[in-house]
Amino acid sequence: MLTFNAQADMQSVRIGVYENPPKIMLGPDGRPSGILGELIQEIALREDWQLQAVPCNWDVCLQLLQEGKIELMPDVAFSEQRQTLMSFHHQPALHSWSQVFRHADVEIDSVLDLDQKRVAILAGSIQQDFLKQINQEFGIQMELVRVSDLQSALNLLAEGKADALATNNLFGGYHGNGYDLKQTSILFQPARLFFATSLNQHPELLEKIDYWLEQWGAEQDSPYNRILQNWQSSVEVQVIPRFVWVGLITLLGLLLLALLTMRYLRQKVQRTQHELKMSDDKLITILNNLQAYVYIKDPQHRYLYVSPKVCELFNCTEEEILNKTDEAFFDSESVAEIFRLDDRALMSGDSIVKEEVNKLPGENEPRTFLSVKVPMRDSKGQIYALCGLATDISEQKRHKKEVHQLIFYDVLTGLPNRRLLMDRLQHSLASRHNQQGNGAVILIDLDNFRTLNDTLGHQAGDQLLTGIATRLSEHIRASDTLARFGGDEFMLLLEDLSTDDTLLLNQVEQVLDKIIAALEHPFRIQNQEYTTSASLGVALYSDSKHNPEELIKRAELAIYDAKKVGRNQIRFFDTSMQQKAEHRAELEFGLRRALKNQEFILYYQPQYHAEGEMTGVEALIRWQPPEQPLVSPGDFIPVAETTGLILPLGQWILRTACQQLVSWSEHPDTAHLTIAVNISAAQMHHNSFVDDVLSILQETGAPANRLELELTESLLIDNIEQTIEKMLLLKAEGIRFSLDDFGTGFSSLSLLISLPLDTLKVDQAFVRDMHRDARDLAVVRTIIDLGRSLALNVIAEGVENLDQRDALQRFGCRSFQGFLYARPMPIDAFASHKNTIPPYQGL
Ligand SMILES: Nc1nc2c(ncn2[C@@H]2O[C@@H]3COP(=O)(O)O[C@H]4[C@@H](O)[C@H](n5cnc6c(=O)[nH]c(N)nc65)O[C@@H]4COP(=O)(O)O[C@H]3[C@H]2O)c(=O)[nH]1
């Protein structure tokens, strides 16, 4: 609070005084001294202020000012923050800057030298804040020793408890000599010094100070300048001349720039360090989780680094592995190979990628590693180590092998399968350009395999197939390929055979003999001896013009031909087979079209009783292609049977015959006539045969007892029980059955007895030759006798003349069919047909 001297109206102004020479201090007379002390005395003199010095240290002075216990505080550097607490005049009372002064014994040239140094500072001063920041910005560890007054700081320096002092330049300069202080180049925070009042208090005091400073600043010989000059002798720099100020600002700018640069660099270093740490961490995480073995070895194969996976593999700790070579971990053979590859990479300087197969002691199976070896170079390009990355691919390898086995090998026999054989054949044909030598494919088809399967079961079949595979494998060369080609088919591919035709045939025949011989010996199937045979089809090749499919087809054609003759046959493919095959293909195509375009016609051949009366007809199919001659069934029925076209064709025949029966049933003259329809094996064995026949009967309304189904002996070979079952079902509906071609096959009497037959047909081949061949005559008589004894109707077909008819009748045959009476004819011709053959006169 300002007080006034009542007598002289003098304003009492209390000023805080602390020891900061040469700027401010308490004079021996108890009055403010130093530059600012004397200055304020000069002003007080002129303004009639009764100046009262209140001794305090910096902190206490500030406190007193806040509390209003002093009016003025000298030597206050202006700052934005202080402006919120105190009020300042405008004209700076003094300029100064902060500077680090070192003890003469301590080396400090730059900010970085402050690291680990004890620097004394006035507690709460602006130097304190700044130096704290320096610590942070530069990442140095400077110890800030706080003191309540600057004298204490000097004492600490004198006692060796501080290495440096950060203070204003004036104070440092003033005490430089006395305390062995040396200026450093660390200058910072230039400051403008003012007298301050508590915030917004006593503006009149500040106004007066401004007034006098302005006055005196302009005068050369003003009290202000005299004070400065007086103190000049005690400090090296008292007032900063303008050019020094500019220099200082520049210096400061540079310092700030340096600081900023340093800060930027430091941040960059920190960032880089951080990034390095991050990538280090990342790298360690990656290495720890990598499903690969990573290592670094020196040129002597000693491990310098191993990833955790390597430790796992060797079942050792990192310490146990480092400095050891692979000799400690793999078997000797593996080690030799590892060293060889390591050395190759180290010597050549090139990376190596290789599959390594190494065996670890104690493991039964070797492991396969996909290994990458990369030589490591120093800054001069010298190789100093080898970095490796290996992945265990054993599982994939095994898996790949299994998949390969499944794709290319037959599961049952372990032989190559069709696919692999085709592949090898393709390869063999493709390499014909470069190689001499012919080749052959031999298709081996087991006879009666189906019967074995049906009678003894699939296991027996499998046993035979594996037995055959083993036996045949023993008789072939390593360069030949034996494959399982299908159910009961094997294929043998012979390569590099002679180019001489005769020699080539000899070679192939030798192999065929070996195959036949190998199969001749009985096999042991389910503890029984089982003898088998095979049909062999051979196709030779000598150039690359063929493709694999074509060659296989040729072998199949040959085997087809072999099977036609019987079992246990060998056939070489020849071009006539090819022609036949092509003809068959054409026929098949034509038949499909014929079915669609309804090019078929049903012919009827009458059957007569001995008395001359027509009893029925045999329906015989004809194919009438547009603008082409009629095709007889002998040419197309076999193709229809093998292609399955017989099923739709058979249905058409049955339906047409049934419609004819319906039409005849409407006329008394024809109502008694029967129609015999030929049934093929494929039709009979088809699941829906019975249903198909019955539904056609129902659909057409034909009388079932007028329909006769003609079966052949060969049809009865397979599935006899099932065939009988079907016959009984149809017979129950009134349908009749006749057996064609009886005597041409091998049917036994017991089979004949078990069949629900109505008619037995004497095959036309026996009838034709009965007068030329006594054996045929005997067969004819036997069949007729047999039929009669079984109470079957016996009909002879192919009767061409009266001699034949008469002889047959003499033997007891009562029914006839043949050109003698009529040829097969279309229905139109049938209406006008009359029997002109006189009855037998002999009886
Ligand atoms: N040399 C001579 N031949 C005579 C005489 N009498 C009849 N033939 C012929 O003998 C064959 C009798 O028929 P198949 O033995 O059932 O033999 C038939 C039969 O197996 C089959 N076939 C004919 N039509 C059909 C049919 O509709 N369905 C089925 N599945 N096969 C049929 O085709 C074979 C041949 O039929 P086709 O050529 O019509 O020949 C017929 C017939 O024309 C004769 O006195 N002398």
TrEMBL record:
Annotated GO MF terms: cyclic-guanylate-specific phosphodiesterase activity
Enzyme class: hydrolase
Pfam families the record matches: EAL, GGDEF, PAS_4, SBP_bac_3
Ranges where the PAS domain occurs: 279-349
Top-level taxonomy: Bacteria, Pseudomonadati, Pseudomonadota, Gammaproteobacteria, Oceanospirillales
TM region positions: 243-265
Cofactor(s) demanded: Mg(2+)
Domain EAL: 584-838
Name recorded for this polypeptide: cyclic-guanylate-specific phosphodiesterase
Source organism per UniProt: Nitrincola iocasae
GO annotation (BP), single: cellular response to nitric oxide
